[in-house]
């Protein structure tokens, strides 16, 4: 079984560069389907398995997709007629496949998508996406594991209040509304930087979206959208993960391409723990000396503390002094990694939607399995600080969201190797 093997206790130092954001590139590639004239060229695309999956989804819908991931570029030609069905094989692999629903409804007036269902972090319903489409005139039906949306007379602008500022629902409604008749207003919209990136992309294609990044987004439908060239924003979660990597090893790391404003909540919490964070022209510098002190934190929609950094912060809090309470409010079941941390001798107690950490835990290297994407990163981070050797398996989760994570850590001085089933010996990886 493929695994990453870490020998803990090495202080990280040097410079690392973060990639384009996974959570921006997936909705942007889905939104590219809106263009009916000219091709879209998307740049700064990270070479992730999720990008491969969304590309397959777009191809299955009859878009022409050229993946040039060696140069971080994807070219999409969606000018021909598209088919309307996103199949289970893709949606099962990656929930973000649901994001083609808005563009398909806008273009084809019909979409049939396999129901995404839940995943390791929660049940993840799509009721808010559907509520938006219904308000715009779509008729929604369910059957045979699929959801169908039908709008024979075309989508009409509407006022939509989201019960929760869902990232995916905001994106799906924005893309549907981009080609709808009239104006759509999304209230209680998600405000994540990735929402702003998608809105900018729609505008670059000739759309009319204002207010992205605030609670209220206004989309005036246009008749046609045109292919353009768009650069994806840097990944704030990869940035945060390297910030924790620096801090958990008492290191000194410069993270290039990081946007500090996108990580304000994380920066503020890490500073509260005693980490020194300096803004530089090229990104941010993170320096830490032991002991760090634990804090209380609660995940919230942006600009609150991101749920996608919860497990990595849990790793950091495990190595910090004092008691910290970490509360997850975005997903109802995002504590699967706690059991794996316990294998590493972590002192963690789950109390409802909170976790109580009494630190510092005397972390010991162990065999652990990633339970989701961010858990994979968090277990590796814990391994950097643990005594002895940690082996992390189920790496397909990691590959969804991190490019060459082990190689980047090795280049910063970590003792880390990735061993494939084919390798007979545990060879040192090449540093980047
Ligand atoms: C590809 C992508 O961008 N993924 C991110 C996106 O996921 P995603 O777009 O799925 O997250 P949402 O913001 O939609 O979900 C947040 C919460 O709202 C609930 N909900 C959502 C939609 C809905 O119709 N009904 C409903 O109840 C979900 O179950 C969850 O509990 O935002 C999450 C929250 O920041 C991040 O963790 C994910 O990394
Ligand atoms: C939960 C995540 O992604 P997704 O929504 O694609 O599952 C994540 O990026 O941490």
From TrEMBL:
<feature type="binding site">
    <location>
        <position position="95"/>
    </location>
    <ligand>
        <name>UDP-N-acetyl-alpha-D-glucosamine</name>
    </ligand>
</feature>
<feature type="binding site">
    <location>
        <position position="330"/>
    </location>
    <ligand>
        <name>UDP-N-acetyl-alpha-D-glucosamine</name>
    </ligand>
</feature>
<comment type="pathway">
    <text>Cell wall biogenesis; peptidoglycan biosynthesis.</text>
</comment>
<dbReference type="InterPro" id="IPR005750">
    <property type="entry name" value="UDP_GlcNAc_COvinyl_MurA"/>
</dbReference>
<keyword id="KW-0670">Pyruvate</keyword>
<dbReference type="InterPro" id="IPR013792">
    <property type="entry name" value="RNA3'P_cycl/enolpyr_Trfase_a/b"/>
</dbReference>
<feature type="modified residue" description="2-(S-cysteinyl)pyruvic acid O-phosphothioketal">
    <location>
        <position position="119"/>
    </location>
</feature>
<feature type="active site" description="Proton donor">
    <location>
        <position position="119"/>
    </location>
</feature>
<dbReference type="InterPro" id="IPR001986">
    <property type="entry name" value="Enolpyruvate_Tfrase_dom"/>
</dbReference>
<dbReference type="GO" id="GO:0008760">
    <property type="term" value="F:UDP-N-acetylglucosamine 1-carboxyvinyltransferase activity"/>
</dbReference>
<keyword id="KW-0573">Peptidoglycan synthesis</keyword>
<keyword id="KW-0808">Transferase</keyword>
<feature type="binding site">
    <location>
        <position position="308"/>
    </location>
    <ligand>
        <name>UDP-N-acetyl-alpha-D-glucosamine</name>
    </ligand>
</feature>
<feature type="binding site">
    <location>
        <begin position="22"/>
        <end position="23"/>
    </location>
    <ligand>
        <name>phosphoenolpyruvate</name>
    </ligand>
</feature>
<protein>
    <recommendedName>
        <fullName>UDP-N-acetylglucosamine 1-carboxyvinyltransferase</fullName>
        <ecNumber>2.5.1.7</ecNumber>
    </recommendedName>
</protein>
<dbReference type="Pfam" id="PF00275">
    <property type="entry name" value="EPSP_synthase"/>
</dbReference>
<keyword id="KW-0963">Cytoplasm</keyword>
<feature type="domain" description="Enolpyruvate transferase">
    <location>
        <begin position="7"/>
        <end position="409"/>
    </location>
</feature>
<keyword id="KW-0961">Cell wall biogenesis/degradation</keyword>
<feature type="binding site">
    <location>
        <begin position="124"/>
        <end position="128"/>
    </location>
    <ligand>
        <name>UDP-N-acetyl-alpha-D-glucosamine</name>
    </ligand>
</feature>
<comment type="similarity">
    <text>Belongs to the EPSP synthase family. MurA subfamily.</text>
</comment>
<comment type="function">
    <text>Cell wall formation. Adds enolpyruvyl to UDP-N-acetylglucosamine.</text>
</comment>
<dbReference type="InterPro" id="IPR036968">
    <property type="entry name" value="Enolpyruvate_Tfrase_sf"/>
</dbReference>
<keyword id="KW-0131">Cell cycle</keyword>
<dbReference type="InterPro" id="IPR050068">
    <property type="entry name" value="MurA_subfamily"/>
</dbReference>
<keyword id="KW-0133">Cell shape</keyword>
<keyword id="KW-0132">Cell division</keyword>
């Amino acid at each position: 079984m493929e695994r990453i093997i870490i020998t803990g206790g090495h202080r990280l130092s040097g410079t690392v560069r973060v990639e384009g954001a996974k959570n921006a590139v997936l909705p942007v590639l889905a939104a590219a389907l809106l263009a009916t004239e000219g091709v879209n060229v998307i740049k700064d695309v990270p070479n992730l398995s999720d990008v491969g999956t969304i590309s397959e989804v777009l191809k299955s819908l009859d878009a022409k997709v050229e993946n040039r991931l060696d140069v971080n570029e994807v070219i999409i030609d969606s000018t021909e007629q598209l088919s309307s069905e996103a199949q289970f094989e893709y949606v099962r692999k990656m929930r973000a496949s649901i994001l083609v629903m808005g563009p398909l409804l806008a273009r084809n007036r019909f979409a049939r998508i396999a129901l995404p269902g839940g995943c390791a972090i929660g049940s993840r319903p799509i009721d808010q996406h559907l509520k938006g489409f219904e308000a715009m005139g779509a008729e929604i039906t369910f059957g045979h594991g699929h959801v169908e949306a039908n709008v024979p007379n075309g989508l009409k602008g509407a006022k939509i209040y989201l019960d929760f500022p869902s990232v995916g629902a905001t994106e799906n409604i924005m893309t549907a509304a981009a080609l709808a008749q009239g104006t759509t207003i999304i209230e209680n919209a998600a405000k994540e930087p990735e929402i702003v990136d998608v809105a900018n992309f729609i505008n670059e294609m000739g759309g009319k979206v204002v207010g992205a990044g605030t609670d209220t987004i206004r989309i005036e439908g246009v008749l046609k959208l045109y292919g353009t060239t768009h650069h994806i924003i840097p990944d704030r979660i990869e940035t945060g993960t390297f910030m924790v990597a620096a801090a958990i090893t008492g290191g000194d790391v410069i993270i290039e391409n990081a946007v500090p404003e996108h990580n304000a909540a994380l920066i503020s919490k890490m500073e509260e723990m005693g980490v020194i964070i300096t803004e530089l022209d090229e990104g941010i510098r993170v320096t830490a000396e032991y002991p760090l002190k634990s804090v209380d934190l609660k995940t919230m929609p942006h600009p609150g503390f991101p749920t996608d950094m919860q497990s990595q912060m849990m790793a950091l809090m495990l190595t910090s002094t004092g008691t910290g309470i970490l509360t997850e409010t975005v997903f109802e079941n995002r504590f699967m990694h706690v059991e794996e941390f316990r294998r590493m001798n972590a002192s963690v107690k789950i109390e409802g939607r909170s976790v109580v950490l009494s630190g510092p835990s005397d972390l010991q290297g162990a065999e652990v399995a990633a339970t989701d994407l961010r858990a994979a990163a968090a277990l590796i981070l814990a391994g950097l600080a643990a005594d002895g050797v940690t082996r992390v398996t189920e790496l397909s989760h990691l590959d969804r969201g991190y490019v060459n994570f082990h190689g980047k850590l090795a280049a910063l001085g970590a003792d880390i190797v990735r061993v494939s089933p084919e390798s007979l010996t545990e060879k040192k990886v090449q540093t980047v």
